[in-house]
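Contributing new records

If you add data, match the layout below exactly. Sequence lines come first and carry their own label; structure lines follow with theirs. Keep one chain per record. Anything else will be rejected by the validation script.
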Amino acid sequence: MLRLEKYSIGVGDRFAHQAKAQLRACVLAGEAGVDVIPVWNKSNREHMIIGSDPCSVREAADEAVRRLGWTKPHHVDADHINLETVDRYIAASDFFTIDVAAFISKPSEPGAVSQFLARHFELATGFSAARTVDKYLAAVREAGRIYRHIASARGAGTFITEVSMDETDTPQTPPELLIILALIADEKIPIQTIAPKFTGRFNKGVDYSGDVAQFAVEFENEIAAIARAVAQYDLPQNLKLSVHSGSDKFSIYGAIRQALAKSGAGVHLKTAGTTWLEELIGLAEAGGEGLAIAKEIYAQAYASREALCEPYTAVIDIDPSKLPSPSEVAAWTSDDYTAALRHDPACARFNPNVRQLLHVGFKIAAKMGERYLRIVEDCEETISRNVTENLFARHIRPLFL
């Protein structure tokens, strides 16, 4: 079976120009003594907005691996796929994030809950197991259908499977996670990562919002639930938690790191859009045309705020009154722009509202097409430096080193 290593990081590259800079962060981690395996991910929604194809992610990843002489594993993730969207990813991907959040709480077949509990009497005590099984059974059955569809096309054992239930309103508790894993084992899905919804808010591109102490307890308990499920239900030994929208959650990295050290568990951290923001920072830092197009993207994002934010309402919190006007931003220097956008909580000029708006504003750059990409290529030096530093210094180092 294709195996995911202990520590892995999901990296998004909206415009397929930063794979080398992202991989360089993993090279630095290796030089510091820890292997962190890159997994390039891009959702179907992002492909549709940008007009790209899953093969472009594979091509960019493989070219970066070749150029940097990377000899450790690397993977390409078909991110948040379902049965309707998965086929276009089959050839290019070797990691599939099966998103079944939409099937949570859908009715299960008559008798299925009681049959499951009869097989798993060990789960039928201490809390409302039947209600939990009923809530998640249809979702897990759908995950099984998608897994078998992929396996029939690619061959079993040739890809890594993740099941995602994070894009829902209610967090899963550790006891619920144990039942979900038992359901997955019964469905014979060899998952290597599981993405539950944690307590608190995981807003795009900014820090965690919630009770850090509560998160720390929950994270440790979910690691324990995974360990129990692996031992009891014959799931893959390397099964680990996947933290979605995990970029920039600086306040919980200490809790995650401590839990990993205490348990010996691994983790998969999805960072996604933080690289797109570093692309903008690099453009602004370069000055000239780079700064001009960064300002233009902000102005158009400001004007289209409601439409850009609508698909992401569950994962952004923007206070419109704290967004500077486009005329204000037009007068900014490179330093003004980067200070507002770069995620440095110690900087008084950092503006999380600007950062979240631009996080969802990649659609503006996509509409610019070749004009945007040409300026990105012209500013490669400043962009790549910021991309590498962000992933290594702000994400990999606090978690793994």
